[in-house]
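Reopening: structure tokens for the heme C complex, inputs below.
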Amino acid sequence: MSASPRWANLLVLAGIVVFFGALVWDDPLFDTAAVAPQPGAPPGLPPMYVPPDNPPTAAAAELGRHLFYDPRLSVNGTIACASCHRQELAFTDGRRLSPGATGELTTRNAMSLANVGYNGVFTWADNRLTRLEEQALVPLLGEHPLEMGLAGNEAAALARLAADERYPDLFRAAYGEDSISFDNVVRALATFQRGLVSFATPYDRYRAGERDALSPVALRGQALFFSDRLNCFRCHGGANFRFTPGHRNDEDDTSVAYHNTGLYNVGGAGDYPARDQGLYVVTGEPADRGKFKAPTLRNIAVTAPYMHDGSIATLRDVLAHYARGGRLVEAGEDAGDGRLNPLKSELVTGFELTEAELEAVLAFLHSLTDEAFLAEERFSDPLRDLSSAAAGDDTRGDAGEHQADAEHGDIVADGHLDWVAREGLAAQE
Ligand code: HEC
Ligand code: HEC
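Re-run output (same inputs, fresh job):
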């Protein structure tokens, strides 16, 4: 291997060291599991929660980055975390539902991972998942739906990693000798995700004092967003546009995190479609039917389609749903008037909105996009650099570096595909 890619890697690593160096509190708080907000984070944002047994280091983040993009972590080598969480879409995938390793679809819409480390609970509606370390087991091992299908196949996956020329060094740097273990895979993935911090938006620049960072139209939209008429901020509040009063915030108090917004009213008595009744699936409480987490609205302009089931295509249609005070599904098995859902949050009241006001709210929502985050090198596929450097070809654009299947939109770097071909593995669709 020539010297230049190693240099490039060192530079990236050095950048990450600086990044996490700045992140870690220089006091005992670190031991009680907190890291300071990222530089650029809004003042007053509570520290990110980090479990004491998984301190963030640059080496762990770099290992986690490799694993996040690596389909070796799926049973048949077809799916990586990044297949459903694509950086340029704020780590969503642009689909309503996403195919896992065997082609089976997820039951829910892939969520953005921007600022995910600040979350107190994970997924659309599971108040038991309070650590990223636990959450990662869902896609890795879950069988209903099957996403990566590693349950019972962990040893084979670890053997694949061990046989790769990069991983022994990456694991050693992160966790010491003989550290290629499933636990460490999970810890590294969590550490990488805690680094996915996104606060460089026009909105944040405006808040920091740059008065012309938001257009007059976006400012009108901001006022509407924070108004008693629209109520958006009551559920999408705080620095992350979801409820963010403190780290681990919404873990115990589900009333602030989960709401029925009247998307459905199947049968008229409050039911959502039987395939997904939200928090009720976990708690068994009839009042929790249709309750889902209010997700972050950061980068919302690039994360369509919307809602837990991806059933709303555009932000304009999202606003129409709220303006009506709940969605009317006119026909089919999901038919019903969500506005009349007896379990609907009292904050979803419906409101009148002129076309100009609607445009203003849209402009405000667009000001929440962090372009730098969507292109940030540290969060990108590490194999991309290696494969283009190895090919001695710096001119290839994104399209050339990725084999993107237009229909499935999967991101699989060339190097990964080579491996799939060598092992003779194919998607079992
Ligand atoms: C097949 C598509 C798919 C794959 C592969 C996948 N995810 Fe996801 N991810 C989803 C979906 C769908 C959800 C929402 C799940 C739910 O609500 O039940 C989700 C939710 C999440 C969340 C919760 C975010 C939040 O704000 O609560 C995290 C974190 C996450 N995924 C990380 C990962 C990691 C790490 C991997 C790889 C180990 C991964 N995902 C692989 C589709 C996928
Ligand atoms: C009662 C609390 C509540 C209020 C008020 C509210 N939302 Fe939401 N919002 C939610 C919940 C919960 C979801 C997810 C619902 C689901 O998927 O079933 C959501 C989803 C969304 C989504 C889709 C997010 C995604 O990642 O798919 C957008 C966009 C959104 N809301 C914008 C707004 C705007 C704009 C307003 C004001 C007009 C608003 N919300 C008012 C709770 C609320």
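Residues 230-232, 234-236, 259, 261, 263, 292, 294-295, 297, 300, 303, 306-308, 315, 318-319, 322, 345, 347-348 surround heme C (ligand 2) (CB under 6 Å). The mean pLDDT is 82. Marking as resolved unless the reporter disagrees.
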